[in-house]
Amino acid sequence: MSELQTITLNNGVQLGTDHLDLWLITADKSQTVIDKEAPGIIETWQAVVKLYKAGKGKIRAIGVSNFAKKHLEMIIEATGVVPAVCQIEAHPGLQQVELEAYGKEQGIHFAAYSPLGNNITGRPRIVDSQQVKQIADEIGADTAQVLIAWVLEKGFSVIPKSVTPSRIESNFQEIKLSKQHVDTINELGKKNPVRYNTPFLYSPQWDIDVFDTPEERDASLKVW
Length: 224
Ligand SMILES: NC(=O)c1ccc[n+]([C@@H]2O[C@H](COP(=O)([O-])OP(=O)(O)OC[C@H]3O[C@@H](n4cnc5c(N)ncnc54)[C@H](OP(=O)(O)O)[C@@H]3O)[C@@H](O)[C@H]2O)c1
Known about the structure:
Blueprint: E1 23-25, H1 41-54, E2 62-65, H2 69-79, E3 85-89, H3 97-106, E4 109-113, H4 130-138, H5 143-153, E5 157-158, H6 165-171, H7 179-191, E6 208-209, E7 221-222
Parallel strand pairs: 1-2, 2-3, 3-4, 4-5, 6-7
Helix pairs in contact: 1-2, 4-5
Bound molecules: NADP nicotinamide-adenine-dinucleotide phosphate.
NADP nicotinamide-adenine-dinucleotide phosphate is lined by residues 26, 29, 65-66, 87, 113-118, 127, 142, 144, 159-164, 167, 170-171, 197.
């Protein structure tokens, strides 16, 4: 067997694979130190496209994460290359209707992160919602399965996270929601809007406006 040709990043890290199925660009929310000299999203996307085209199949698809409609428009207009995937926070409390419509029109596939809500900023998680639990009880499912089904119903893929083996297993058990349940959940979410992943609200705070929301108004820097 021939030796695996691993992809090596320019910081020396070896990925241990000879190809990437999907390469996404995103803001790195694990750091609070912001590199103000870093290239903007257009330059970054141009560089990704160049590598994708030169990669001879080593990179099978390229995409983005946490992009709003205007960011997608900017990179598509600059390069003519449409991202294959846009990974976004998606659950009933964050319904990005305009972004979703634009993505569908452009043929962009959406992948939903934080579909259950997380507790980074201590807000109540959607997965603990009594109203969603009521629907779950009615159909003999659990709340996580209902929320995952709600996202799948949109045609998105979904990446729930759990460190609990039994939950990992149950999260894979797909259930089907009726249109009436989908509509009820849509309305519940609209009444309780929430975005869980806002770096400006993290502790320690990341002093940047990523999503152009009122909560981020006082940030010194903007992502675009
Ligand atoms: N692109 C981005 O900017 C971005 C941002 C955030 C997250 N992500 C990615 O998206 C993925 C998921 O996001 P996330 O972790 O923020 O949120 P999430 O998957 O919606 O929620 C995770 C939380 O839900 C709990 N949970 C999982 N299954 C459950 C179940 N069946 N019943 C009750 N609780 C359950 C987990 O607890 P236990 O683990 O204790 O079971 C954990 O507290 C991760 O892989 C993450 O890397 C991407």
